[in-house]
Amino acid sequence: MQTRSSWEHEEGEDGHGWDHAGWSYDGPTGPQYWGTLTPDYAQCSSGGRQSPIDIIEFRTSRRFLGDLKFTYPTNASGTLWNNGHTIEFHSETNLWSHISGGPLYEDQYHIVSMHLHAPSEHQLNGKYYPLELHIVHQARGTMDLVVVAVFFEEGPYSEFLAEYEYPIHDIETPDAHSPVGGIDVMSVIPRNASYYYYRGSLTIPDCDERVTWLVLSHTMTALPEQIQEFTKIYPHINRPVQPLNSRVVYFHAEGDPSLLPPNFHIPAPVECPPNVTITVPERDDPPEHHVLGISLVFFCLIALMVSLRAVRPK
């Protein structure tokens, strides 16, 4: 039997990961009871930044966060593992596989595993998708995680899921392993990787809240029978959506402005009088700076209207 990754072992000891038994997705050990099963899981019910969430497009805040930089393998080999809750992939090449850019700046978060949920855990405008892929990353020497979430819906054939199809028949029982190769992780990243960004938690016990979520806005497709290959083993493994509370979900549109969600409206640019200066807050400025920035924009518009009224012919 093949060994599991060091991440999984270390995270399991600290309460993260899939090693801990005693929880499930239904019944008396289901999500609504996770916080009461053991003190280690208390955050599942008491935390204020829990995941997943329902992403409502018109309530998101559009900000330029920077494009993400994906350095993912196109021919990854590793192990598929039935951990008793889902099918998980661990790569043998994760040392060179990482993500950076966007709200991560130049920090590199390396891939430690990938797994699927059915149906999706996050919702988009109240809609569930048949599958949601989680690509889990971790910065070296920290416990902070970054998870890239990719939705799958029914449509054309998926080369990515095709690599799962045959090995998955050999791992239908918990703790079964199977070697796998040829997985193109880059194939699930669209050319224009627009994304939603928010701070949340693991979606499994212990529901630790040191997780940065990057939910891609573009969906991937798979044939219905490809999706069924996975769901016949684990047909319902998703945690219900959690309250957003005071958090803000940001949307970054990469490249083409037409990629903005349809409910966004970008007003036409207005030139300010030369004696008015507006300072744009940094992306990590506190909320009070945002209020100041909005006030300055409002002042600019008032000044422009007054100046136009002054030069209007009598």
Automatic annotation (TrEMBL):
Keywords: Lyase, Membrane, Metal-binding, Transmembrane, Transmembrane helix, Zinc. The chain crosses the membrane at residues 291-311. Residues 1-22 are annotated as: Disordered. It comes from Acanthamoeba castellanii (strain ATCC 30010 / Neff). Its EC number is 4.2.1.1. Residues 21-253 form the Alpha-carbonic anhydrase domain. GO terms for molecular function: carbonate dehydratase activity; zinc ion binding. Residues 1-19 have a biased composition (Basic and acidic residues). This is Carbonic anhydrase. It catalyses: hydrogencarbonate + H(+) = CO2 + H2O.
